[in-house]
Amino acid sequence: MTTTHRTTPDFPDCPNFPDFLRGEPLDGHPLRAHLRDLDCLEETLAFNRAFERAAGSRPVRRGPLDAETLARLRRNRLGGDTPPRRLPQARDRRLPGGVRVRVLDPGSPEGVLLHLHGGGWAFGSADGQDERLWELARGARLAVVSVEYRLAPEHPYPAAPDDCERAARWLAEHAVAEFGTDRLLIAGESAGAHLAVLTLLRLRAEHPGAYCGAQLAFGPYDLAMTPSQRSFGDRALLSNTRSLQGSYEMFSPGTDAGRRRDPALSPLYADLAGLPPARLVVGTEDPLLDDSVLLARRWREAGGAARLDVVAGAMHGFTLYPLTVTDRERRREREFLAAAGR
């Protein structure tokens, strides 16, 4: 279950969008063509400031999470303080091999979306986004299969990628019998986007072309840390340099930066040939900005199609919050997934 190792890619000087948006001219900027929602910048940055103020009033947590804190955070919706709402339209299944999934099928689907949730490989659940996934299922005419992969630190690498791979293989082999369609897509947010790329790489040899599109939202693709990850600092947004370091240690404990460049852990270093068309989205105030910019570039260099959308002013995980850019991003996601593979 390993991918072909590749030499370390050169990191060009990635444009610093946060500084750029605070006064540098737009014309001629290398990412200008990918910038979205500039008209919402004031609202989006105001939300970030309010988020930082609220986060600043809470005690800074350092070191590993204790079991009680971990359990409490897992009970709540990602980015919130209340449990997620489970919809009666969804049903839970256990696949051969023991992997659990949650299925949302609007009836007569025109494709199937394998969804991998975010949460730093340690939080989140297959039933944590029922409302959003049901809306997506109905809007894009897709059955959604969300994977309940095992979480770190109890189950470190390779547990989560193994579970996602098993679910993806099952879907590649049984989608027609189960859902009446062989049009398969994959999507994930944050850690889920990372797992989505690893899953495509793992399936490439045995099931080439099985998945016809990938929706990848603000994923970490270099666990050895891209320049934007290292330089982001301790800003009290949903993710920052220290929180990323903590997530990587839970997911791959005791692994140094050199070993984290293994493409089996960090898909930015993998051979990306033969992967389906992808849409990558990231905010300008996200420490993972470089990850999406560089992965999109490498995806295209390997001969694939990669659309990059950079949301002006958005922080990591912005789609968890009631913002204008969230509504727009969900529409763009729905449109991409409805059209992919047609």
- Nearest-integer average pLDDT: 91
Distance from N terminus to C terminus (CA atoms, Å) equals: 30 Å
| Gyration radius, in Å | 19 Å
Structural class: alpha/beta
Order of strands in the sheet with most strands: 1-9-8-7-6-4-5-3-2
Q: Could you say which overall geometry the principal axes of the C-alpha atoms support?
A: globular
The number of E-state strands comes to 9
Strand content: 15-25%
The SSE order reads HEHHEEEHEHEHEHHHEHEH
- Unreliable parts: 1-8
Counting H and I runs of at least 4 residues, what is the number of helices? 11
For the biggest sheet, the summary is: 9 strands, mixed
Q: Give the % helix.
A: 25-40%
Features of the shown structure:
342 residues, 9-stranded mixed sheet, 11 helices
Give a description of the structure.
There is one protein chain. Helix content is 36%, strand content 15%. The chain is globular and about 50 Å long. It starts with 16 loop residues before the first helix and ends with a helix. The chain is an alpha/beta fold. The protein has a nine-stranded mixed β-sheet, with helices on both faces. The chain has helices at residues 17-21, 41-56, 67-75, 130-140, 159-179, 191-203, 227-231, 241-251, 257-260, 289-301, 324-339, and strands spanning 35-36, 91-94, 100-104, 112-116, 143-148, 184-189, 211-217, 278-285, 306-315.
